[in-house]
Amino acid sequence: MRPGPSQDDVRRQNLGALLRHVHVHGATTRAELTTTLGLNRSTIGALTADLSAVGLVSEGAPKETGRAGRPSLVVRPESARVYAYAYSVEVDRLRAARIGLGGAVLDRRSLDRPRGLLAAEAAPLLAGAVKEMQQVVPTDAICVGAGVAVCGMVRRDDGLVRLGPTTGWVDEPIGAALGAELGVNVPVTVGNVADVAAFAEHARGVAAGCDNVLYLYGDVGVGAGIIAGGRRLTGHGGYGGEVGHMKVVLDGKPCECGARGCWETEIGEHALLRAAGRSGARGRDALLAVFDAADRGDARAQTAVRQAGDWLGFGVANLVNVFNPEMVIFGGTMRDLYLAAAAQIRSRLNSNALGACLEHVRLRTPKLGEDAPLIGAAELAFERLLADPLDVG
After folding, report:
1. Rounded to an integer, what distance in angstroms lies between the CA atom of residue 252 and that of residue 114?
2. 152 with 195: CB under 8 angstroms?
3. 27: buried, middle or exposed (CB in 10 Å: 19+, 13-18, 0-12)?
């Protein structure tokens, strides 16, 4: 018979549960924690004392409540003192941020990224952004790690980017390269950008409270972050969510992955710009110019947006039928396309998806906006702390 958890195991789990709640939900009274976590008042008091002693939370009196009696102390995350570094490696730019416990963005930097820049070249630039941010970090602050969001297929075990067609990366060790720049005391975790953005929106964004979510992220290509039953669905090796490479046209247009007829060849950056007669342009600004031209009555731009919206609705209908989500979120350039062609997308979704799967699905844009990948990358770094709060510091 397998022995049950020890007292230390139970204490560690309870500390993690309390810190996770405060990290996600913000300042919370002891009374609320007692009810939410199902623990007695003395246990909550002991746990908060332990977390306060190592500087992870602070306690104080609440603002005036207007109620009689002694108010319950409020537990707050030490956002300014406990933080993670977050990075987003995108097609045309590199972004870095310092994000405090509780999800507060404390500082940020953005750099242009020449297309073709490899991991060994990107890592020093990202580390340089960190050195700038470190100049204003309090001397007693604790860095719990770093998280990286990357456009591409990321091997979960070691953060190797196996394939990033839109960034030109093949077997690029961004986690190891960045770890070497930052030093051994800063563990680095790497994830796919759509997956970590879904993680962030599920934890503290528009999908908070939804257990089944599909987050579509677009730049040059298209990927998805999937939350199923409240958990991230990443597949056996971490390569799940590559929905942009669903085959939608037999012997269709060539895709950067090497195949033909992939979904992203109909809804990605290249497809929309080509259809609008702007094949020489590229990047987010070029796409926004197409949407603006369509809004002003440009017939070719309108046709391009309508076609892309139709294909987007077609693919979303298939994904809704497969995953039966409560919510579909459109991020990155998919947000821009959704806003420009919402009626077209909804029409195709209504005609192609199963009625039972459509009953409760909601279409949304990210509450966290462009910060979703950064906040999600930070969540990867915070996971180690939340699993064992007293082992980090």
Report:
1. 29
2. no
3. middle
Residue type, 227: I
Extract the tokens encoding 106. 């404390």
Q: What is the DSSP letter of 241?
A: T
| Contact (CB, 8 A) for 213 and 198 | yes
Yes or no: say if 392 and 385 are a contact pair by the CB < 8 Å rule. Answer: yes
SS3 of the chain: helix, strand, coil, percent, to 5: 45, 20, 35
Residues 6+ apart with CB under 8 A from 62: 29, 71, 72, 73, 74
User: CA 377 → CA 38, 87, 97, 192, 360, distances in Å?
Assistant: 30, 7, 10, 9, 29
The crossing angle, in degrees rounded to 10, of helices 284-295 and 333-340 is 0
In the block, which residue shows the tokens 């298939």? 318
CA distance 67 to 192: 47
Note the pLDDT tens digit of each residue in 150-175: 988 999 888 899 988 777 888 999 99
Express each pLDDT in 293-322 by its tens digit.
999 999 999 999 999 999 999 999 999 999
